[in-house]
Structures are given as structure tokens and as C-alpha cells.
Amino acid sequence: MAVGALILIYAGVVVRSILRLPQGGKKAEEVADAIRQGANAYLIRQSKTLAPFVIVLAVLIGLFTGAATGVAFVAGVVCSALAGFFGMLVSVRSNSRTAKAAEEGLAQALGVAVKGGSVTGLALVGLGLLGIGAIYYLTSSVAVLVGFGFGASLISLFARVGGGIYTKAADVGADLVGKIEKGIPEDDPRNPAVIADNVGDNVGDCAGMAADLFESYVVTIIAAMLLGAAMGPQFVTLPLLVGIIGAIASVLGLYAIRLGKSHNIMNALYKGVAATCIIAAVGFSLISFDAYVTAALLVGVVATGLMFKITEYYTSKEFPPVKEVAKAAQTGAGTNLIAGLAVGMQSTALPVLVIIGAIIASFAAASAAGIPGVYGIAIAAVAMLSLTGIVITLDAYGPITDNAGGIAEMSGAPSRVRKITDELDSVGNTTKATTKGFAIAGAALGALALFAAFAEETGLQTINILDPRVTVGLFIGGLLPFLFSSFLMKAVGKAAFDIVEEVRRQFRTNKGIMSGKTKPDYARVVDISTQAALKELLVPGALAVLSPLAVGLLLGPAALGGLLAGAIVSGFLLALFMSTSGAAWDNAKKYVEDGNFGGKGSDTHKAAVVGDTVGDPFKDTAGPSLNALIKVLNTVSLVFAAFIVANALKII
Amino acid sequence: MAVGALILIYAGVVVRSILRLPQGGKKAEEVADAIRQGANAYLIRQSKTLAPFVIVLAVLIGLFTGAATGVAFVAGVVCSALAGFFGMLVSVRSNSRTAKAAEEGLAQALGVAVKGGSVTGLALVGLGLLGIGAIYYLTSSVAVLVGFGFGASLISLFARVGGGIYTKAADVGADLVGKIEKGIPEDDPRNPAVIADNVGDNVGDCAGMAADLFESYVVTIIAAMLLGAAMGPQFVTLPLLVGIIGAIASVLGLYAIRLGKSHNIMNALYKGVAATCIIAAVGFSLISFDAYVTAALLVGVVATGLMFKITEYYTSKEFPPVKEVAKAAQTGAGTNLIAGLAVGMQSTALPVLVIIGAIIASFAAASAAGIPGVYGIAIAAVAMLSLTGIVITLDAYGPITDNAGGIAEMSGAPSRVRKITDELDSVGNTTKATTKGFAIAGAALGALALFAAFAEETGLQTINILDPRVTVGLFIGGLLPFLFSSFLMKAVGKAAFDIVEEVRRQFRTNKGIMSGKTKPDYARVVDISTQAALKELLVPGALAVLSPLAVGLLLGPAALGGLLAGAIVSGFLLALFMSTSGAAWDNAKKYVEDGNFGGKGSDTHKAAVVGDTVGDPFKDTAGPSLNALIKVLNTVSLVFAAFIVANALKII
């Protein structure tokens, strides 16, 4: 609790230092204001939409599992929302300051962007530790903590889904009319959808990712505590201690982010990650009471490093996969798409090996230490997610630099400044992709820990695949990620269509926009995006919350166990496939824009743009939402475990 | 055995009646000859490539599981290859006769095409019953039959993979240069890839599909016999009797295919399916010894009907999904692709409900009859696959009419004739899609029966998902379909690239081709396609055969059980997703070509063509190959079950 509070105070200090920085000229400020207002409007509307849903669920949880759990649920909702809100508030204030700092040089601009990003990371970790610490201190009950975790889950689902729909509908809408039909550049102030697009970066990449990782962070710690509760008090506190070490390591790691002589931004950021990993590893060995337990914790750190490298290999334009996708664009959009889909499918292999390697190694280490193997898996997951602070910093850096680029472009900054913001933004694209790999692997390991906790809570000793109920559960669980993704892809398509219509209407009815004489009606597009995102959010949300309850109550807890296992496997694979394909298309397009295979404006480029368009909802809407889905399925099952065991109908 | 032999004799009679029909003019005959030679060359080369592989495996099986099983394995290989070969021989002779019959009218042409298609169906069913009957008669050992099933599996894998790569590489290559770069129509004789494209229809859709369903057919019967062996002799013969009933019903059903007054071809074909279903249902109730057993059998028949209807809904241009995909093409290739991917993902839901409904209903029915529930699931699968004869007729009808259209076009037949072949071909596209739904569901149910037989053979009472070995198995199993698909997609891309280069070279170096003065070098393109398909076949083949052995030996039979379950679920979902997306794009393009949203040549049409190109390897290479993959994984595990149990290292 104290560490959580201290981190939040530290975050406050960072925020003050950011707010003191200069903001750039009046024009830049205008743009930043518009983005800020749009982002706030979205978050407020989202909160209002979800409030009744949250209240009903809180009452249900209170009735079926106790009032304390219901209250903890609301606390989880509030903390998760605050983590995203807080991060975004700072993010939308750091963007113009980064653009301003770019006037002084790359190092200065990088410093501001990293500082801004770190606030999201710090807020998330601080709120997580504070929330878990406070509830555990007050109730000494891990069961109540599960309510807190479910609250975090629910918000992460809605933030990922809503934010993902918002950001891509706006992005696709802006590109289809602006870039393709009107031939104006990205972030051109004449595009009526440009502000919505920039808002989308914040609500999707910043608030959505923050809520996602906040959830993984807290639910994994809680699951490990729950598994440890049957083993003794030191096993309950260990996950919390690991979380604290990771948080401290993340704060210290921030100071290691320094631009070297080579001016390589990516390396500067990686220095921070590497320092955090080393500090955390040392810290873990200090707090651990057994060399084998330390080994299990180190598994999580190693898995983090591997996921970063693997994701970078498949999504960075430095390596063969992206180059091959770009090369395939030479024979048209069709072959570009086939190549990207193939890369995405292939990219699932190494992460699966990392996950199964982590499962086997941490299980074996725990068994060697004489403790249950599943606990080993759970603390390896906690160790991995304890690094969330630094990871989220890198991720939140993305929308800040993206927006900074947009603000520089829209406020007509000199080309020297724009070159710096472009450089920062290009690295932001890579970090957005690599942190996604971490988030997916973290979600899978976290979900596995939750799954083990679910079995513990329901008293299931075996979940036997040969039992047809479990087989049925496996099929339903495997299906959910596909069905969920299809809803989200359709939602983006529909919302983008509405935005295209509106942007076309504005260009048509107001000729002054294209000539730059009148300002377009940005707010109208922001409004359409907001409405669309919130409207499309409820069906997938209901699907995620109700299907485990339905299967559990109709077919029993073992079938529900099958569902959870099926969803974890299928969701993990599909999330990797979609995220990697999307990022590979995105960077293949950028690789062509760098002057390869004909460069910008060539037929190859046009083909690559099609891939990028398809990749947008893949990598930024459906893919990341699956993380939230597999965790929500597990937390809802965990919260209602006792209720399901007591009331299952078991129709076969 | 006798029934199998009788059906083969009947097939011979049908063949004679086809060969007596007139073939059309000299020009049509030339084209048909070229297709025939290409198809034969491919099958012969494929057999030669696979021979060493088969011999090595036969020796290994003989050593580890007994000489009789090794011999049965070779018999399975030979029967499966013969089924495909026989069907294709007739198919490539029926195409020109269908084109000729089209001169007389629609009903006549339909009659020839259905007759031609029925030979594949009859050959398959006849060889299956004959092979199983003969081996069981000679050895009275179900264990030896498993070797036969594995032989069929292996060929189906290679036929699906090799045929799938061949057909789509040729198709994509022909379209990219012919249609898009040169602007010449489909099946234009000036296109050097046109013969390879038509050969591909035969080796992919006809021989590939025949091997796939032959495998599902025999392995499901064998798995049910194996499960029945522990229960008593009547349970061993029941699956065989069900197979016989289905075969007879299919033959009788063929006579119900009649063009009504409305001249609706699809309805004519459906009459045959409906008649077969009704006759089979009556037959099942006559041979069954228990009302509940009859109910389990009827589950298979109902599932067949539902799969046809569901697949048709998602892939026919009469229904909303395809229309929506076509509509999305109005805003470009990107939105067309997003819509198609979303439809594909959504289309997995209802088939999953059919499968789980079938599992629950047949399990409950068997339990009510006082016999093990898994046996109920197995005989429901057998009942479904007993209808293979009629289903394959509809499927093999596809390449015959497609080729007939090509021959009519290339031989310059009058437009009246081409209109008829086009009409037949358009229905062929639908039947190709709907039979795929049946094949996927049949593969999934068949694989589930094999999975149960695997548990029986290994003596596993439980396969516990909470055991981390099983969890690891689930992840690996879930991964395999993704990895396998990525290999195939890449293989198509590479092979298509080679063909594009060759076609471009021919157009460049020989100016006479475009003006129609000289004939292009068809054989060279056929050769490239053949080589590419066979070269790319070995890695995925090895992956499918070796991964279950590796997991079983390293982590034990329970982990292998996890792998099989993971692969069935993930393979089933991915196969549905890819097949439906592909068919939806294909028919969305056709819907636009019918004059909707701007019609042929419009920007919408161009966007729809991109979707179709991406869909080709989805629906005709990767998607269908997954059927073979999930069955091979199960048959190889079943064949080596005892060996794995005895020699597993169990490293954790």
C-alpha cells in the first residue's frame, strides 16, 4: 500500500514537471486543446454508458458473493478507469510539449515523451499496488480481492473494445477520404476526421493499453495470492513483494533511458527495459526464500525479453518478414495480403514456444522447491507483469509522439522539427507493436494463473477432455475469440463507413475546407466516433460476461473449465496472428514509403496501403481486445465459481 | 466387401456410359487432352515423390506395430490414391462431354456432369467398404484396420496440400497476368497458364476432396469399430452396416437429381441430397437394434443437412453475408477484405453449435441406450460420413462444369452453349463451398471419434487440462493449424510468383501469343506448378507426422491427448474461417459481376477481385488442408499409441 502511494506521489511530481514545460505556439495549443477535449468527452461518455452496467453487476456480485466483494468490484472499476484517465490526461498534455521540445533537439523531445509515457506506467502500477494492498489490509481476504480483479477486467474489456473501435474507425475514415480520395497528407488540418484520429490514438493506445495491462497486473497478482493462500502466508505476500520489486525496478529503469552517441532512439528505450530487467532480477533473488523460487521468477523476466525480441523480429522493417510482405506488394494488394496473413500465422509459433517453455520451466522449478507447480507458473506470470511500469511507458510514448507529429504538422512547424517528431513517431510504432507482444503473453500467462485459481475455487481436481461436457466447453471457448473478433471488425467497418460519409459530406457542402479557408467541423466526427464505439461495445461485452455463466450453469464447472482453456489457447493464437499481421502490413507500407520497391505513390505503395487498412482493425481493435476477453472470461468465472458449483443444472 | 465390390462395378457401368457420349469437336478435344495429360502427369509425379516416404513409414509401422498393420497401411495408401485417381480420370473425360451435351440443353449437360461426378463418389465409397471389409475379413483385427486408416490419412494430407498448392498457384498466376495485366478473359487460350489452371481444378477440387472425404469416411468407420470392439461384436459391425446403408442411399439418391420446371440447378442437386438423407434415415432405423441408437444415427443426418444450409447461407450470393462483403468493396479493397474476414470469423459460430449439439445429443442418446456415450458420438459421425457418396458427387460436379466452361470458351463454342456451361459452373461454385462445410464438420466429428479411440488404445481414463503437460499439449495442438496454414499460404505465394514470371516471360519473348498466332507453351507452366506443389509438400507433411510423435514421446500420452484436442478445436475453427471467407469473397466478386454496385470493370469490381485473390489460398489450399491435418495427427497417434505408451520419456 505504502509503495503504491509513494509511486503515485512520484507520478504526481513527474506530472508537475511536465506541466511546467512550454507548450508551443497558439496554433499548436489549439490543436492540442481539440484533442484533449475529444479525449475527455469520450472517457466521460464511456463512464456514463457503463455506469448502470457496473451498478447492476456490483449488486449481483454483492448478493451472490458478499457485500465486500461487490465493493471491491467497484473499487477495481474505479482504479482501472483512473489509471487510464490519469495516463491520458497527461498524455494529451505531453504531446504539444514534445512538439515544442523538438525545437531544441531530439534528446529533449525524447525526454518529454518518455516522461509523459512514464506517468501512465507509474499511475497504473501505483493504483494497482495501492488497491490490492488496501483491500487485503482491510479484509485479509483474497476472495474479496477477486472482486477487485473482476472490476479491473470489466473496464479493460470496455476500454479495449471501445477504444479499439474508436481509434480505428477514425483512422480508417480519415485515411479513406483524406489520403485516398482527396490526396491530402496524413494529419492535414483540412481533414475533418483528423482530430478524431488523434483522439483515437489516446483512447485506444494509451487508455486502452493501460486498462489492459492494469488488469493483467492486478489479476495475476491476485490469482497467485489465491493459489498461495492454501500454502501459507509467505506465499500470499510473495506475489505482492514481486510486484513491488518490479515497480521499483521500473522507476529506476526510467533513468537508464538515454540517447547514446548513435542517436538511436530504440536503443535508448531498450536501455531502460534492460536496466529494469536486471534490477528486478537482482531484487527477486533478494526477496525470494528459495533458489528454485527465484528461478521461477526469472522465467518471467526471460519471457519478457524473448517476447520483445520475437515481436520486433516479426514487425520491424529491419527484418525479413516485413520486407517480404513489402516485396509481395509489388504484385498487388492480393499478394501483399496473403503474405501478411502468412507472416501473422507463422508468428504464433515462437511465442507459443515461449509460453510452453515458461510453463514447463516454472512448473519444474516450483516442483523442485517442493511447492505446487501451478504456483510456480503463477509467480512467473507475476514476475513478468511486474515489469508493466516500464513497458507501459514505452507504449504510452507511442500516442504522445504520434500526436506530437500531428500537432507539428497541423501547426505548420518547420521541417527540422517535423523530422524529429517523425523519427520519434516511427519508433513509437515499433514500441506499440513490441509492447503488444508483451501484453498478449502477459494476458495468456495471467489467464492461466486465473484458470488455476478457478480450479482451486471450484474444487475441481481434474478437467477431463474425454468428458464430452469438457469437449463442448473447449469448442465454445475456442469459438469465442473468433466470434468476438468478428463483432469488432464489423463494428469498425460500420463506424468507419459513417465517418467516411460525414467527412465526404463536409468536403462536399463546405468548399472552403479544401482550400483551407474554413475550419472543418472536427467535433462532429469526434461525436460520431464516440457514439459508434459505445454503441458497438455492449454486445461483445455481454457475450464475454454471459457465456461463461451460461456454460457453467447449464453444463457444470468442468465444462466451464473447458471453455476457459479453449478460450485461452484460441484467444492467444488469434491475438498474436492479428496483431502481427497488422503491424507487419503497417511497417511494410512504411518500408515502401522509405523508398523501397518504387516508394511513395507507386503501385506497390498503393497495394501496401490496402494491407495497412486491413491491418488497422486487426492490430488495434480485435487483436488487443482478445487479451481483455480471455481475462474477463476467467475473472467472471472466478467471481461466480462458488455460485456456479452450487447452482449448476448439468443438463447432460 | 460385397457391397463395396458391387458399387465399384456399378461405377464401372457409369464410366462406360460416359465414355460412349460424344466429345465435341477437334478443338475441344485438344483442350481436354491437354488438361488430361497435365492432370495425369501431376498424379504420377506425386506418386513417385511420395513412394519412398510411404515405404519408410510402412517399414516403421511394420516394425513397431506388426507386419499386418504395415501391409494394411500400404493398402490404405493405394485405395486412397485410387479413389482420387479414378475420379479424376473420369472427371477429365466428362468435362468435354458436358460441354458437348450443353449444345443439346441444360438438362442434358447437367446429366453428364452429375454422372461424371458420381463416379468419384461411387469409387470412393466402394473402395472404402471393400478395403475395410477385406482387411477385417482376413484379419478380424480392428488394430490392423487402423493401419489402413493411417494410409488413407497420409494420402489425403498430401493430396490436399499438394493439390491445394497446385490449383491456387496456377489460378492466381493465371489471373494476375492474364486478367489483370493483359486484360484477357478467364480461360482465354492465349494465357499460357490456362491449362495449368484447369488441371488444378481437377487435382485440387476433385482428387484432393476425394482423398479427404475417403479418409474421413474410412477412419471414422474404423474408429467407431475400435470403440465398439470393447463392447461386443454387434457394435463392431454396426458402423460397417451404417456405411453400407449410406452408400446404397447415395446411389438411389442420384436418381432423384432432376431438373424441375423452374430449371433451378441447385434445387435439382438438393433433391438428390434430400432423397439420400431420407432413404438413409429409413435404412438406419431398420438396421438399428435400439431406438436410442437410431436417434444417435439420425443426429449425423440432421447435422449434414444443417451444415449444408449454414454454409450456403454464408457463401451464396443470395444471402446477406456475401452481399455485405460486395457492398464493402464499394469503399475499396481494404473494406472488402475486412468485411470478408469478419464474415469468415462469424461463420464459425453456427457450425460450432451444430458440432456441440451433435456431441450432446448423440452422447445423451447412447447413454440412454445404456452404451458408452463416446460410441454414440462415433456412430453419429459415421452416419454423417456415410452420406459421402452423394456429397462427393456434388463436389466433383464442380471441376467438371468449371472445365466444361473453360473448354467451351477455348474451343470457341457458340454463346448459347457457353451460357449453359456458365450456369452449371456458377452452381458448381456453390456446391464446392457447401460440400466444404460438410467436409470440415465430418473431419471434426471423425477426428473426435479417432481421439476417443486414441484414449481407448492408450488406456487413458482422463486427460486433465489442469496437468501442465496437457496444457502444453493444448497450446501446441492449437498452434499447429496456424503454422501449417502459414506454410501453405507462403507456398502458394512462392509458386504463384514463379508462374507469374514464366507467363510474363512467354508473353514477352513470343509476341505471337497475344495476337493468337502461336500457341503458348502450356506444358512449361504445368510443369512449374507440379514441381512447386511437390516441393512445398514435404515440410508441412513432416510437421503433421512428426509433431504428435515428438510430443507423445517427450511429454507422454496425456500431453499428446492435449495436442489432439487443441488441434481439433483450432483446426476446425480456422478451417471454417478460411473456407467461408474465401467463398464469400469469391461470390461477392461474382455478385458484382452480375451487375451490382457498378458491375464488371468498375472500381468496386477491382476491389472485389483483390478479395477473391486473397480468398483463393484461404478456401482452396490452407482451409481444406486443415481437415487432413487434424485427422493425420489423430491417426498417427492412434497407430503409434502402444509404442508411445511404452517408450514415453516424460521429461516433466
Task: Name the features.
homodimer; 22 helices; globular
Q: How would you describe what is shown here?
A:
2 copies of one chain form a homodimer. Chain A is mainly α. The first copy, chain A, is 85% helix and 0% strand. Chain A is built from 22 helices and no strands. The first copy, chain A, has helices at 2-19, 26-65, 67-101, 106-139, 142-182, 194-229, 233-254, 265-287, 291-315, 320-328, 333-346, 349-368, 373-385, 388-410, 415-458, 468-509, 512-515, 522-535, 538-555, 557-593, 603-639, 641-647. The first copy, chain A, is globular and about 70 Å long. The relative contact order of chain A is 0.14. At the A-B interface, α5, α11, α12, α13 and α15 of A face α5, α11, α12, α13 and α15 of B.
Topology:
The structure is a homodimer of 652-residue chains.
Chain A lengths: L1 H18 L6 H40 L1 H35 L4 H34 L2 H41 L11 H36 L3 H22 L10 H23 L3 H25 L4 H9 L4 H14 L2 H20 L4 H13 L2 H23 L4 H44 L9 H42 L2 H4 L6 H14 L2 H18 L1 H37 L9 H37 L1 H7 L5
Helix pairs in contact in A: 1-4, 2-3, 2-5, 2-6, 2-14, 2-18, 3-4, 3-5, 3-6, 3-14, 4-5, 4-6, 4-7, 4-14, 5-6, 5-16, 5-18, 5-21, 6-7, 6-13, 6-14, 6-15, 6-18, 6-21, 7-8, 7-13, 7-14, 8-9, 9-12, 9-13, 9-15, 10-11, 10-20, 11-20, 11-21, 12-13, 13-15, 14-15, 15-20, 15-21, ...
What proportion strand of chain A?
under 5%
- Rg of chain A (CA only): 23 Å
SSE arrangement of chain A, N to C: HHHHHHHHHHHHHHHHHHHHHH
Number of helices of chain A: 22
Overall pLDDT confidence of chain A: 91
How far is it from the N-terminal to the C-terminal residue of chain A, by CA?
47 Å
